[in-house]
Amino acid sequence: MSDDVRFFVFDVESVADPQLVAKLRYPGEDIASNEAVARYRGELIEKHGSDFIPYTFQVPVSVAIAKVADDFRLLDLVVLDEPQFRPHVITEYFWRGWEKYGQPTLVTFNGRSFDIPLLELAAFRFGVSVPGWFRAGAARGGGQPRNRYNTQAHLDLCELLTNFGSSRFVGGLNLAAHLLGKPGKMEVAGYMVQDLYDGGKLEEINAYCRCDVLDTYFIFLRTRVLVGELTLANEQKLVAQTRDWIKERSQRDSACRLYLEHWGDWPNPWASQA
User: Where are the domains of the chain?
Assistant: First the structure.
């Protein structure tokens, strides 16, 4: 079995840039940047029922990556630029790491709509060059990493489960994780990240991000069964091995400890017929 990294299963948490919000949303007004963010969130709630600020006004504050081998084993789980979590360094580390490991397949849940555009825009903002991702000289079509249907470059599990957006996946990552008996959302949810950040709770944000990546990894494994790259028996062996890995890691990793406390096994409907 090879320990070469073949997949980056990852998730991003981000927060609003308060100066940018104040400057662009309320030009000419004498308003503090934190007040501008609160005001904008209030306007979004009133208009859309959600106070989630568009990613174009945001910067990444947490990126967690599960490094996965060609045989789908989990090799490592890391967060970038710990413990400082600086947006520009996180962005640089993500794209340089992707290149260092030979451009592994990026695996996300709904990352085409959020995580990838956010990290592309962050690279634009912070002056990070990513020629391998954009491949300006490559022919159009499936060879372009950013092509929607190039699942060798980026596999968005939500797109796979919705036939590339032909339907809505109501319930999101949380629902998909619960179908497999995994924790899904626990003490933190995405809408809480801005307030956690404002309260200086970066560790909590990064623990949440790591747990989301673990959920995404187990969903990824089941999609490999779905498309015929793994047998169900082998997937269940990988799940058991990963649980042991999480248990060992939980001695020093609060996110793994929390995940293990909420662990659930997949209710196998075939077991009673065995």
Answer: 5-139+150-158+167-268
